Amino acid sequence: MLLLCHICMKKICLATLLLLWISASKAQQWLEWFGFRSLNDTVSTEKTGFALIPLLYYTPDTRFAFGAAGVYYFSLKAKRPDQRDARLSYVQFLADYTQNNQLDIWGLWNIFTRNEDYLIKGELRYRNFPDRFYGIGNATGRDQVEYYSYDLKSFKYLMLKRLTKEMFLGFDFMISNEYNFRIKEGGILDLGNITGNRGGVTSGIGGVVTFDSRDNIVNPYSGHFFEISTYYFHPNIGSSFYFFNFNINYQTYWETKPKNILAFQIVGRFNTNGVPMLDMATAGGDEILRGYARNRFRDINFAGTQLEYRFPLFWRLGLVGFAGVGDVFNSTADLSIQRLKYSFGTGLRFAINPAERLNLRFDVGIGREGAQYYLMVTEAF
After folding, report:
1. Each residue of 109-139: pLDDT tens digit?
2. Is Lipid biosynthesis found in the keyword set (predicted)?
3. What is the pTM of this model?
4. 3-state SS string over the chain?
5. Which of 111, 115, 219, 228 is the most buried (most CB within 10 A)?
């Protein structure tokens, strides 16, 4: 939750889906989103509006999730001839409920000021989240699982200044309160030697630098994305915990032939001692190391990489193959070939909006403990 992209923990996929559905009041648009239109159609050029749609997705941590989302979108016009209109900004609200009885209610905003001099992001969130805990480290067993739940209230604010066309620099503030922990009596969490096992306040400030030359943020064919973020958590700024966090994310894309894309990613999430359990690095999820549930492995640090090849089949269908490797760890001494987490698999793509390269994806990822399944909107990275 400490990466810039985790301001929207379901990434940009829900926001993108909403923003592309910008003429939702027209019945024709509903039909179009279910595939009844030309592949050469472009998205609407409307600059202001409101949309409301249902949500559906599936991950190993949630199983099927259902909900609704609404978005108000707008674009600020340039005031001078030497300036450009800003890209689309939005304010959105989402609420979903999962088969695992998890409730998530949150509001997000992503606003470009005039001439895109600044980018302002934020999040206000409430979460009631029953989950599974397997212990700390990369060698835990599935038979160690115990169930727990908690409530969370959080607020995040990020402001970035545009330095060049492709680079932004800024600061971030986040605060969350994790409370109402319900844990197994006599279990691992009940022993009291895991930081944050009863919740607390996590408050921190940080800096973010982003370089983004991708030709499309939803499904790039070329370009690079590079982001570094750091966060400092201390009781002097209201935190119950004292630790430092550092994140790195690099992505690059090559179009080997028309619409055949080779995508590569490196991710690192590093913390100092004192990080609470809910803010620890995890291995798995719908973004990297597909094949492991996000809650399966956690520790102070994570490093991983993955490679994916994407190509069209016919009509609006496409196929991908992917492979990745990585692990969580406390120190590098914890890493070993015998425990290193690998992941490989394949996935089917259906183009919801070909003009914007927006895909519905179904992935099957295989890891050391078997297969996991994912139904999401947009690519993993």
Report:
1. 989 998 889 999 999 999 999 999 999 999 9
2. no
3. 0.84
4. CCCHHHHCCCCCHHHHHHHHCCCCCCHHHHHHHCCCCCCCCCCCCCCCEEEEEEEEEEECCCEEEEEEEEEEEECCCCCCCCCCCCCCEEEEEEEEEECCCCEEEEEEEEEECHHHCEEEEEEEEEEEEEEEECCCECCCCHHHCEEEEEEEEEEEEEEEEECCCCEEEEEEEEEEEEEEEECCCCCCHHHCCCCCCCCEEEEEEEEEEEEECCCCCCCCCCEEEEEEEEEEECHHHCCCCCEEEEEEEEEEEEEEECCEEEEEEEEEEEECCCCCHHHCEEECCCCCCCCCCCCCEEECEEEEEEEEEEEEEECCEEEEEEEEEEEEECCHHHCCCCCCEEEEEEEEEEEEEHHHCEEEEEEEEEECCEEEEEEEECCCC
5. 219
